[in-house]
Amino acid sequence: MPTATRRADTRPAKGAARRPGVRELAAQATRDSILRAATKVFAKHGFAGGRVEQISKAAKSYDRMIYYYYGSKEALFIAVLEECYRRFNDAEAGLELSAEQPVESLKAVIRFMWGYYLSNPEFITLLNTENLHRGRHIAKSLRAQEYSSPAIEVLARVLASGAKQGLFRKKLAARDVYLMIAGMAYFYLSNRYTLSAFLGEELGTAEAMAQWESFLIDSVLRTVAA
């Protein structure tokens, strides 16, 4: 009597991650396209000037898809801000920092922040726009603080390592040092055009920005030194 052939079980194993289907992948691609287009439009025109039809056209999509996936123009703007912070964190997570070399690690963090602001001008522009609105949109985000914590934690570990070795002052607040780095880097880059006119010298040249990066690093190291 012939033995019955057992059909292979093609269902995913229990606990295994389910692979997204074609529709899910297409939906995610549409959301990503809208988010990229919105980032460019809001960075160029601001929240008030950025129109939904501009975004849908840039994304090669439709207005109704923006409302379907994001609900409103404001919700889309909040998503853009959240994505900017997420990308910043992901990039910072790639830093290779050594606990045995806290000074070099701190320099690496400073160079990263300066370089990231320099390479991502839309980040500065979008933050400028949101500050003009007194942060009322990002205040509605449920993820904003979630993104700020890793950045502070990275710096806290570096400062703690330096303090343990007697290189940095003890009880330094990572938040304060972070604000010092961000403030000096952000202010220079976001205001370099008006400052150039005010000071009568071009602050946007490679030489001028390299000099400011060096000054920024030196200022922070002097501040944290034991």
Structure description:
The protein is mostly helical and 226 residues long. It is 71% helix and 0% strand. The protein has helices spanning 22-49, 52-58, 63-70, 73-93, 102-119, 121-132, 144-164, 174-199, 206-224. The radius of gyration is 23 Å and the shape is globular.
Largest sheet: none
Radius of gyration over C-alpha positions, nearest whole angstrom: 23 Å
Shape: globular
- Which CATH-level-2 architecture of the largest domain? Orthogonal Bundle
Which CATH first-tier class of the largest domain would you pick?
Mainly Alpha
Estimate the strand proportion: under 5%
CATH superfamily of the largest domain: Tetracycline Repressor, domain 2
- The chain-level mean pLDDT equals 90
Number of helices: 9
Estimate the helix proportion, in percent.
Answer: over 70%
Terminal Cα separation, in Å? 87 Å
- SSE sequence, one letter per element: HHHHHHHHH
Number of domains: 2
